[in-house]
Amino acid sequence: MVVDIGTVTVAILAGSVALVVLRYIQARKPVSNYPPGPWGLPFLGSLLQFQTDHQRYFMKLGDKYGGVCSYMFGGKNVVILNGIESIKEALVTKGNDFADRPENYAVTLYNPQYLGLFDAHFNETWYNQRHFTHKTLRGFGFGKTSFESKIVEEVEFLIEYFKANQNKPVDIRNFITNCVANIICSITFGQRYDHFEDPAFLRAMNCIRDWFTAAGSLTLQMGHIFPFLKPFLGKQVGAVHEAAGKLESFLLAQIAKKQDSADATEEPRDFIESYLQQIKEDKEGKFSLLYLKQNIMDLFAAGTETTSTSLTWAVLYMMTHPDVQENVQKELDEVVGREKLPSYSNRGDCPYTEATLLELQRIISLVPVVPHATTCATTLRGYNLPANCEVWANLWSIHHDPKLYPQPEKFDPRRFLNEDGSLKKNESFMPFGAGRRVCMGESLAKMELFLFFTGMLSQFSFAIPEGTPPPSLEGDLSVTYMPKPFEVVIRERI
Ligand code: HEM
What we know:
Enzyme class: oxidoreductase
Structural class: alpha+beta
Largest sheet: 4 strands, mixed
Low-confidence stretches: none
Number of strands: 11
Number of helices: 16
GO molecular function: heme binding; iron ion binding; lipid binding; steroid 21-monooxygenase activity
Oligomer: single chain
Bound molecules: protoporphyrin IX containing FE
Distance between the termini: 100 Å
Strand order of the largest sheet: 1-2-7-4
Keywords: Endoplasmic reticulum, Heme, Iron, Lipid-binding, Membrane, Metal-binding, Microsome, Monooxygenase, Oxidoreductase, Transmembrane, Transmembrane helix
Order of helices and strands: HHEEHHHHEHHHHHHHHEEEEHHEEEE
EC number: 1.14.14.16
Strand content: 5-15%
Radius of gyration: 25 Å
Subcellular location: Endomembrane system; Endoplasmic reticulum membrane; Microsome membrane
């Protein structure tokens, strides 16, 4: 029999194409009654339609396909949740089914075993670490009024810095980050650092933002979707290693110092000392130095960048909305006066100020999209989802839903106030997520936001530098939604 090479080649090609298309169809619809979503090309999925501010793009998908829809990132299938109903059903009503975290190439670069608090899978190890960390931090006053003085101490340092740098354009981001980081330092190492004097501290703290930016970059996501690209991502991989490595070395040095000076007879004075004691008492191998290091890494990453970026946004919104700034200052003057700094107990008497902070958190939606994964095969709003399904909850879509918040792009604190000026309760608000993986630092973050924000505004006003256009209110999305670099003129109120 004579075999025609041309026919064989065509047959092989046709077979390969059919296989690729079949695999694509299988990946596109892994189970029956799977959530709908845009069709795309085999191999590329719907990537050609992708837009970099994904939170807005995902909202558009929600408008077209509903609150539960699917999306193909190359060959990777993701379910996207938009709107309060689907996100609440997943994170709260069916909390256990949606409590896992997905695996990601960027995470393997700094946390290959998925340890710690944020990236960890939903299992007993995560539960033990989260439970012990939360209980111990609460014991040291984390999120309680007894911790207020530690925060106020840092507010006072920030005020000193503002006084020394007023009446000229300045970039305040690093200084805010350092003040906020010192709060986590107090609770984990029992020590604060001088912002100007300690180069190791400065290096470690200022790299947190670089770490978030590099780890959240679209380029590294591409490495996750198309593994063959990994050898070409040396620059981005190096940036993650460098930034995370600096923070890691700083934290390991703190742990080593504590190990050297550990005195078994003394009561632990901070989180590291408590954890080291727990390792000694633990007979089942549940606690180790490796877990300790990752837990502290997570506390610094999740607890520093988030609060400091929110406060940086707060300054940006105040300088661009002088009417709101004035209203807040007027309320603080009436309730507290300018002679002393506001305390957390004042917040009940400052509804406009509270409403401004809520509106800020709504409009920036600091962590716009939170990654979750299913722990088992489950259903959501009538659709079937397989186990280990990557699910992204678009919190931004709640906070920018025009039905819940008319004219969502408008910054208007009054939407959080009743007609009589009292604070309005709002069930459709979740900047800290919800359910089993809800932010562990929510109570601390709320206290920090109130004390820093009111401390800054009771003493200073913020303005756009003369002769320059208003800074952009559009941010850049990495893990968090960050403002673009900007300068502000700080003026002491007299
Ligand atoms: C304005 C400040 C903050 C915001 C907006 C914020 C927001 C969030 C969000 C949206 C999540 C994910 C929730 C989910 O997956 O459903 C999260 C998780 C987390 N946050 Fe925060 N956070 C803030 C401050 C803090 C602080 C101060 C700490 C600790 C000191 C902290 C520690 C954590 C931890 C450990 C997790 C992981 C929880 C887990 O997966 O079990 N956060 N945060």
